[in-house]
Design goal:
- The structure is a single chain.
- The protein is α/β, with parallel strands linked by helices.
- It has 16 helices and nine strands.
- It has helices at residues 5-14, 24-30, 54-60, 80-88, 90-97, 101-117, 129-137, 158-165, 193-197, 212-224, 235-244, 270-278, 289-292, 301-315, 344-352, 357-375, and strands at 18-22, 64-69, 123-126, 141-148, 170-172, 227-229, 251-256, 283-285, 321-323.
- Strands 1, 2, 3, 4, 5, 6, 7, 8 and 9 form a nine-stranded parallel sheet that branches.
- Strand 4 (141-148), helix 8 (158-165) and strand 5 (170-172) form a beta-alpha-beta unit.
- The longest helix is centred in the C-terminal third of the chain and has 19 residues, at 357-375.
- It is globular.
- The structure holds zinc ion (ZN).
- Zinc ion (ZN) binds at residues 148, 231-232, 255, 326, 329.
Length: 377
Amino acid sequence: MPIDRDRIAQLHREAPLTDIHAHPSLKAYLFRRNLWRHYRSGSTFNPFSSRSDFRMLARGGVGVVWNALHLPERELFGCFWLRAAGLLVLPAYAKLVRGRPFTRLLEMAGAMEREIARRPAFVELATTAADVRRIRQLGKIAVVHTVEGAHALEGDPGNLDRLADHGVAMLTLSHFFDNGVAEQTRGIPRGHFVSVFCTYDLGWSRPVPLTDFGKTVLQRLTRLRMLVDVTHCTPGARAAVFQEMDSSRPVVASHVGVHAVQADPYNLQDDEIRHVAATGGTVGVIFMTHWLAAGAPKKGLEAIWRTIEHVHRVTGTFDHVALGTDFDGFTDPPDDVRDASQLGRVTRLLLERGVPEEDVRKILGGNAQRALERGWR
Ligand SMILES: [Zn+2]
């Protein structure tokens, strides 16, 4: 069968095509963006572009988006230049440096929900795995809230209960700075415009990679039936999470590469990939060549393929790899897959490389849905 657009669109519907890590809500909240409009996503880094707005998602045939609620850390504004830049977009800056982080996080969820509510016939918030199935059967886009960075908990495990009540499916433990939960790897790429202008203390100041509070967080996630995401954790913190978690609970690495292809502590080692697989979790391939390929080429499709292929080689199946683009996370996506509307290029590549359709559907969405069914409410 030729690889025509209809076949790709059909696979996207059947999978359904799922992005397990994107940040449309960052743009909706910080810049009060209407997510039913598109803000040009060119090939240069542009914090004001939109890459996972509803128009791009619909055009790409995305059926499910795991919307990462993430409040950029206040430590970022310890840098004079970022503070100066913040003053140019004062309303956004004020949201980041004033008020309680947890309150701000809920406001961000609210901003996303307002955008969803503009067109209830096309998109709906899912608060359980069964809800995702129901919304898909109606042919709508299902949005699943996740939270990136346990700093937003403000040290209160009770805030996890509030997130669970709000329908949040997953918590990414770490992010850029010491959050008193789990040790973070360097997450701001050298060469990223922020690294050019700002120097930060990105270190971890605790004797253990997973604190007692971190262990409490993991226990609470298990009790609340929320997923854990080890992206941004150091290898030591990932090992501690694997050790602490009951092996029946799926572990997710939502937006990463693999160490064998790009040797960086941010990326998963082979035994870690096997561990994720053993829990029924999945690896989400990030769409940032910095983490995927040596020398960070401008084009990324080939590096995305090599990463998927490596997970297949290590686990012997295509059952534990998914897409976690990080679109709209102030990232610089590859020039050959710049936004959600272009995700069909990945599907085409998988088919061209001879991946059977059944496995293509797993990579595009089946594996993500399985992790939700097993690990979420
Ligand atoms: Zn991230």
